[in-house]
Each structure stands twice: as structure tokens, then as C-alpha cells.
Amino acid sequence: MPLAALPRLFKRVALILGVAGLTLLAWRVYDSERGPALQPWHRLVPHELTAEQLDHADWAAWLAAEERVFGEVRQQVSERLDPSLVPPFNRYRIDSRVYPPGFTTDWNRSYLLRPAGPPRGVVVLLHGLTDSPYSLRHIARRYVEHGYLAIGLRLPGHGTVPAALTDAHWQDWLAATRLALRTARAEVPAPAPLDIVGYSNGGALAVTYALDALDDPQLPTARRLVLISPMIGVAGSARFAGLAAWPAVFPAFSKSAWLSLRPEYNPFKYNSFPVNGARQSWLLTDALQGRMRALAGDPRLQRLPPILSFQSLTDATVSTPALVSGLYRHLPANGSELVIFDLNRSHDLEGLLDPASLTSLASLLPPPPRNYATRVLSNIDSGSAQLAQTLTAAQALDSQRQPLDLAYPPGVFSLSHVALPFPLDDALYGTQPTASEDFGVHLGRLAARGERGVLVVPMDELMRLTANPFYPFLIQRIEADIDQATVSTLIR
């Protein structure tokens, strides 16, 4: 090609890219404007503490700031709502049966649960994105039964209004994590055991904190990490999520800042999701995986706490392969363990499951020996919904298969990202909710049938499993190490 033609070629390419970009932005504006109108809870951004302020705060200061944030929501959203314009089934309407401040305990807030006697240990619990401290309260209570102090942290931007996530930053979440760990050690000094439990996005924060503690002796060190559906990796498309919000710089197109606008009927979790939420999750996981790659082979990794993880083979929110390739393959032989819940491969579902999902287990784990133990829970055989576990110990070449007193319930083909931390009797998400608590709705028991286009909630959300039929196995594995940690501390 003659050199004289290059400028014309560059101009054409630039013109094509410019037209394509404008077309995508125009489509984004059109697509977002078709949705429902923004509501007060999509506009108010409460004033949370910044990372710098969190690093200079104690637990009392955090609770005081949290009280001010919830006061903003009450005064500027709930007390100003027009009941004629807001349906009764709304978490921000004061007279609604799902209004969180109306419950005996508002589990959107940070909490500190004390055991009956002097604490034998302490645990910090970190919830997931769009979530609240509610999601890990069952595990917190089990720790308390074992004599631990439980600290359930509300991460900045959560538990209030969805708009809070439009201005959230993962560095603020990590600063809040540091605050909770400082509080843990102030309440229960070393050498008493200290655990961190992280669910989804909280799992990424737990691992990131543990990596930071390798370099900073001022940070309290955890004895172990328990990760539930951890967000070690997300879809690659989340890298470009921020582009979808560009039209929102113009007030007329402010709805472009949202990936979904849904009715807010869940008292302890946002249903609407802003673009920035996806953006921050990708930034956090990208930083985490970069740290793990940089530390590959580094002697400092030998000081990383052992990690116990629970993960569904299929997960529409986080990447199951990233948990293995982005975290576990870098771990030293430090007593870590990975538990995988397989699909329900019984005859009743034969031919209905995605072939790619059916074969994903075979390529998920590297061949043994591995530095970590694995437990895979799967059908005992293709003719039964009964489960067995295949246990491969760390550094072992062979596996042991043991039947379990667990079975897939009829009609359930897999676990889900949101199901793992909730028992079947959870008052909100359980399929067999307890009568001892009432949060205004039993989301896990909904089985809607009817015509398309009638419900304001997408049908796939109602079909998603929200409680874990294998929760007894999950909590037994967590509790086994709780008791072991307490015994070893007493011996020392």
C-alpha cells in the first residue's frame, strides 16, 4: 500500500469506529429509556465514610456513621414517598410488610453477636454485592454457639438504597474490612483464633485482605478463610461495564447508569443493579488475580491462612473455573480445601441439562496430586438423586468415595450462587421457612404459574434456587474446623 494512502485509511477506520461507538451509545440510551422510571431509591446516594475515614475509625464511630446513613434514607426516601405512587409491597414504604426497620432486627445493619461466656475466638463475616449482613447470619449464629464473637459487617453502599452503589468503590469495602478486623482483635485478642467468612464479593475481600496482611504486620492475621460462592472471577464483559453508563453524564439519560431497574420487594437485598456495581466487582477481582499471579512462587504465600471454599459447579454470578485457576492453583500446601457441588445428574433430568455444563467438571480440576484437598458432591449413581462425596486429600493421587445422607430434592437440577449460605428453613429464602421469624414474604417458597408478561419480576429470578438443601454438610465442614482451632489454641 502506498504511504500516501495510509492517512486516508486511518481516517476511514476512525470514522467507522466513531460511527460504531455512537450507534452503541444510541442503542444504550434507547434500551435504558424503555425501562421503568427512576424512583427516589435510585437517586439518593447516602453519605458513607470514605476509605481514609474508615482507616481512622473504630467500631463505635462506624455504627454512628451507619446510623446517620440510615437516617438519610428514612428522611429523604421513606418519609417522602407518596403511597398512591408506590405499591404496598416495597421495602422503603413505612407501612409495608417488608419495611426492614419494622422487624425485630433489621439485618441490613452491622451487628456484633456475643456468646454466653468469654469469647473463645472471633469471626468476621463479609456479605456479597447488593447484599446485606442478613446473608451470613446463620453461620454467625453457629460460630456464637461454639463460643465465638461474631462481627457481621455491612459494607459501604449496601443495606440502604440501590443508588448507594452508583458511587461505591471497592477500596472503601476493603477499608471497612480492615476496620472490622481491627475491631475483632480489640474485642478478642490473640492468640484466640480469628476466622474470616466471605460470601461472593465478600470472598474476594477476604482473600485480598489476607494478601495485604502478608506485607503489613499491623493488620491482624486470620487463622483461616471460609469462602462461599467466592467472587474470584467474573465475566470478562464486566471489564467494559462502565461504557454502558456513559450516556448518564447527561441528566436526561440518567437511567443508563443502571443495568436493571426492578421493584424493591426484598427487605435485605437490592433488586436493582447499577453499572458501577458490575464495574467495581471486576476491578476488585482483577486486582486480586493480579496479586495472586505476582505472588506465584513467592515464599510469603506460605504464610497465607488455609482456605475452605464452597462452590456450585454452575454459577451464573461468578466464575467457578476462576476459583481454581485464579486462586487455588497458587496456594501452598497449607491445609486448604475446595468443596464443589455438582449438578443433579439423575435419570429424571437426562437430556435436559446443557452439555457444556455436564462436561465442565472433568476439566475444572487439575490432575492430582494437588496442594489442597477436594470434595466433590455428586449423584451416587445416575439412577438416584442420593449424593456421595469424592474426597481427594492434599498431595494424594487416589480418591475415596463415600455415600452421604443427602439427596437432591425433586425438581432441583443444581445449586445456585445465591443458595449456598441459606438453610432450607431460612425465614426469607428457605423452601421450608421457619414460623419463628417473619420478614413479610417467603421468597424461597414462591412457585408462580400463569401467563407471560403479568409478573413484574422476571420468571428466571423466581426459578432460581435460594436455599441450600446441602446446608447441613456445609455447616458441618465449617464447624469441624472451628472445634479444631479452639482445641489447638487451648493446647498452646
Describe the overall structure.
This protein has 492 residues and is α/β, with parallel strands linked by helices. The chain folds into 2 domains: 23-423 and 473-491, Rossmann fold; 424-467, no CATH class. The chain contains 11 helices and 12 strands. The chain has helices at 6-33, 51-54, 59-76, 137-145, 170-187, 201-215, 275-294, 320-326, 355-364, 459-463, 471-491, and strands spanning 111-113, 121-126, 148-153, 194-199, 224-228, 258-260, 273-274, 307-312, 337-341, 373-379, 386-392, 400-407. A 10-stranded mixed β-sheet has the order 1-3-2-4-5-8-9-10-11-12, with helices on both faces. A two-stranded antiparallel sheet has the order 6-7. Strand 8 (307-312), helix 8 and strand 9 form a beta-alpha-beta unit.
Outline: globular
What is the average per-residue confidence, as pLDDT, rounded to a whole number?
A: 88
Would you identify the regions where 5 or more consecutive residues have pLDDT less than 50?
A: 20-32, 487-492
Structural class: alpha/beta
What's the CATH architecture name of the largest domain? 3-Layer(aba) Sandwich
Helix content: 25-40%
* Domains (count): 2
> How many DSSP H or I helices?
11
Q: What's the CATH topology label of the largest domain?
A: Rossmann fold
What name goes with the CATH superfamily of the largest domain?
A: Alpha/Beta hydrolase fold, catalytic domain
Assigned CATH class of the largest domain: Alpha Beta
Straight-line distance between termini:
77 Å
Report strand %: 5-15%
> What is the gyration radius calculated from CA atoms?
24 Å
What is the N-to-C order of secondary-structure elements (H for helix, E for strand)?
Answer: HHHEEHEHEHEEEHEHEHEEEHH
The number of E-state strands comes to 12
